[in-house]
Amino acid sequence: MNNLSKKIRSLCEQKHAVIMAHYYTLPEIQEVADFIGDSLALAQKAKTIEADIIVLCGVHFMGETAKIICPDKKVLVPDMNAGCSLADSCEAKALAQLKAQYPNAMVVSYVNTTAAVKALTDIVVTSSNAEKIINQLPQEQEIIFGPDRNLGAYINKVTDRKMILWDGCCQVHNSIEPEHIDALKQQYPHAIVLAHPECKGTVLEKADVIGSTAALLNFAKLHDYEQYIVVTESGIMHELQKHCPYKQFIPVGAICEDMQLSTLDKLYNCLLTEQPEIQVDTVIAKKAIVSIQRMLEMSEK
Ligand code: 13P
Ligand code: SF4
User: Fold this and answer.
1) CB atoms within 10 A of CB 278
2) Residues 263-274 pLDDT 10s
3) Which residue, 217, 189, 209, is CA-closest to 24?
4) In this predicted model, what pLDDT tens digit does every residue of 141-158 receive, in sequence order?
5) Going by CA atoms, what residue is nearest to atom 4 of ligand 1?
6) For the residues of 6-23, what is the DSSP string, one character each?
7) CA 77 – CA 212 distance, rounded (Å)
8) Confidence class for position 301, pLDDT limits 50, 70, 90
9) What confidence score (pLDDT) does residue 1 get?
10) 79, 111, 172, best to mutate for ligand 2 pocket (most atoms within 8 Å of CB)
11) Residue with CA at minimum distance from ligand 1 atom 3
């Protein structure tokens, strides 16, 4: 651990703070964190964590989700500018208009959304539990699913539904083309293709395994295959390589620049100054917690 990381750890002790990080963050951030996980695990952990301060290293909606789950804790993020193209693709006002067109539809939203969108949502889902949660709803239930059209189309396929899909996407995953996978498959014909469901359907068709970051990691940890083509954001390579040092992981080369905004310097300053702090409007938070709570309950069933 370098000097800065040691100083970060000692500030955490002094201030009774915990660092939570997503698998896409920089390796040094994952190494200094108390807890790393996918979006679902981060939300579940926030619910039970004992701390006065949570520092969320990831993107803004993850900090907001933690704050909604833990309104009494101080939630900090190293860089307030760390946004998410997927969350940005769905504005609350526009979602409210779509809801008005389908008064009988339930709104199921991916966790990659703003607090205001979660407040208009009946159930939040992540890529870890979307299939499980949709399967718990009656087959005839009308559903608006947003904002990721790729995840939505994938869930429609595996649950045999016709959910109304919001036309949004993650610019990082959506920029991966099937030709990129073909080129890597030519070089590594025996490699297993691991893909995140935020990728286009034409990319997912080429995958051997489709799942959230945690699901992809678990697959690699639990199976004996030696080579994997990794079709998601490259930050996950750190955890893959750490747990499977003798396996070969070939990244498709997708980088989320927002995830890279959490650096050790900013993390240190954020713990020192206790800024920037996430604030969520209390009226919005009170509505949003209901849809998050439903997700946490339904993913236990
Ligand atoms: P998961 O870690 O839940 O798979 O989400 C991926 C992602 O894009 C987070 O922003
Ligand atoms: Fe958002 Fe995509 Fe970055 Fe995840 S990878 S934080 S979905 S922009």
Assistant:
1) 20
2) 999 999 999 999
3) 217
4) 999 999 999 999 999 999
5) 212
6) HHHHHHHHHHTEEEEEET
7) 23
8) confident
9) 79
10) 172
11) 39
